[in-house]
Every structure is written in C-alpha cells, then in structure tokens.
Amino acid sequence: MPQADFSYDAPGDAAGLPVSVSVFADRPYLRDQVCDDLRSAGFRIGRNGSIAALLKGDPVALGDAVLLDCPDIDAEGMAALSRLDMRVAQAGSQLIVSTSLVALDDVFACLDQSRAQILVDASRAERIVAVGRILGAVGGHRLREMSKEDRVALLHLSQQVDAIARQLDNLSDGGPAFALSDNDSEYRGPEHHRQGAGRPPLPDPSLVRQMIRQRQTRAQYFDAELFADPAWDMLLDLTAAHGEHKRVSVSSLCIAAGVPPTTALRWIRQMVETGLFDRVEDARDRRRAYISLSERAVDAMARYFAVIAGPVAVAA
Length: 316
Fold this sequence. Notes:
alpha/beta, Arc Repressor Mutant, subunit A, 5-stranded parallel beta sheet, 3-stranded antiparallel beta sheet, 8 strands, 46% helix
C-alpha cells in the first residue's frame, strides 16, 4: 500500500520563511513518521529527538510549534512539562502533546498556559488533523496534489472538527437550554457553589444517573453515533457529581462523553472557554486538576431540570 502523501504549499511567517516545528518522541518510528508528514506539509523541522533531550537537557530553540509524544510521565517529567507549557505560552508558539489515557490526567494537569492540543492514543489521521490546525493558524497556504482518497479522508476529518466548533459556537451564543449571563458571579471552585437568587435546586443525583443509564442503554440497540452528544453527556455527568460532592478527573469525563478521548478533550477545552466548565486545581496536590460545572452552568442546569421536573425519569 503506497504511503499517504499529505502535501501542502509551504506555510511561512511574515518574512516568508518556512514555519519551524520541533518534534520530540521516544519512539523513533513515530518521530520519523511525524517529521515526514510535516515536511510534506511544507514545514521546516527545527529540532527532533527524545523526550529527555527536550525536558531534561539544555534549553533549545522551540521554533514556531512543538509536537511532543508523551505516552507516560513521572513526577519529574510533569514538572518539566509544566515548564515547557509556560515557555511555549510565553513564546507564542503552539504545542501538540500526544499521550495515553492512563497518563492523561497527569499530562492535562501540566498544560494550562499554552492552550495545547492534547491527543489521546492518537492515530496518524488524528495527528494530521492536529497538523491541519497548525496550518489553519499559519494561514496563507492551500492543499496541493493529493490523491482523491486522501483528500476525501482529510475532508471528512476536517468536517468532524468543524461540526464540533459550530455546535459549541451555538452554545456560546446562549442557546435556550443555556441562557448564560455575563453578570453571573465568578466561579471559585466546587466548594463555593451556592444557590443563586431564585435558583431551583438541582435534582437528586440518582435521577441524573438514571438519565445517563437510559442514554447509554440506547447504544445496545442503535448505533451509538446516531445519538453522540458529548456536551450533554458531560453536563449530565458533572451535574450528578456536583450533587454527590465528587470531583471528576478529565479522563473520567472523557469516558462519560462517549466519544474518542481526543474528541472529548476538544469539547472540554471549548466548554471551559465558553464558561460552562471550570478547570479546578487540586489545592493539596498542584499536579492534579479536575473539571467541574461553572456557577453559570449549575444555574442553567438547575433551571433546565425545574422545567422538565415531571418527566425527569423519562429517557432524555
């Protein structure tokens, strides 16, 4: 089977120079594959090597973007990754981190400055989508010669990402289920959630869990993709956890979303940016971070459930 050729006109900076990307991975075959794809896309490979060469070695020029394959990480690596996250943010670069579901919570906790793209157990196609996001940020480029099959595959992937963005844009515009007001009080962590003036109480968490089970039951009889709605599934999961006074890790929330983890992470990031979710640092362990409903989302969910109070036990 011939190797896919993902070719682009070379993206450049304001001076017309090729965009520089550094690639760091401990798996040589993966590092070579990513470098080949980036070169085909017209990027210039700035540096490439092992994770240790980046995280533990002497400071190196990062270039315009950094791709990091980090399937597992220890405490020392987390500290180094946090420094890299801050450095990338300060430099105005872009960061893509490929990791595993096992290491996701630790990696997520380290990345709160650079708006990094996080890929979980990524396929080559998912890496191409991530590269496409860099291309989109660079601008001034266009696809050139690709096979019909490759073009269709990339188009489908791009459409999926665009569909997520459009749906999230609708949420941020203040749809009927989430009438979010900018006047709501600032979120200060789950322990500070309070019932706003006139806000009805949230339903019993057991009823919300029942709704979640009912939604999951559909997958036994129908194609799960027919009902994929990660935003709502995550909102329900966080609503139940809020009533149970439980913290929700990012990996747990990805599972609740019912979509691939990389897709769920895109939703989570957008939901944080639109003010529905909050990233909550663990006060006792700064290496941990959780996701919770924002104060505004708690208010919206409470009012939503008040409207449907009668049929709560019916499938959502």
